[in-house]
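Lecture notes, continued. The same structure-token format from the folding unit now serves as the input rather than the output. Read the line below as a description of shape only.
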């Protein structure tokens, strides 16, 4: 039911042509959900837990499935990074405050990444100058 409600909301917002694929975690697999979403969305990535039949095994070992599954993992990783930089809870009230809070969380994560890049650059510069001396 939850999957259908989410898909309906996305399809209403973006239309059927606007969504090329949709990816889910293993816990959301239901044959009915996958078949229903398959009517509206060209590629549905919905891995199955446990034992798979031959057709499911072939589907999940395909190039497109693996590529989109890796993208799903990357998105989950980015979400975890943002939660680590303060976006795990929003103490502010209201939509404007929520947007501001999200923007600051993204800014904090990006500053952290930029700091790592600058530190790595400085470390390489230091090692280069040590070897030259």
């Amino acid at each position: 039911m939850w999957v259908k409600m989410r898909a309906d909301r996305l399809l209403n917002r973006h239309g059927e042509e606007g969504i090329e694929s949709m990816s889910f975690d293993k816990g959301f697999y239901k044959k009915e959900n996958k078949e229903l979403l398959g009517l509206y969305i060209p590629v549905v990535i919905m891995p199955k837990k446990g034992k798979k039949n031959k057709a499911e095994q072939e589907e999940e070992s395909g190039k497109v499935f693996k590529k989109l599954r890796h993208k799903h993992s990357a998105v989950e990783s980015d979400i975890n990074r943002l939660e680590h930089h303060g976006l795990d809870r929003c103490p502010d009230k209201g939509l404007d405050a929520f947007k501001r809070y999200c923007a600051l969380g993204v800014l904090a994560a990006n500053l952290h990444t930029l700091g790592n890049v600058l530190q790595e650059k400085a470390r390489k510069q230091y090692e280069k100058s040590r070897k030259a001396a």
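Point for the exam: The first strand starts at residue 21 and ends at 23.
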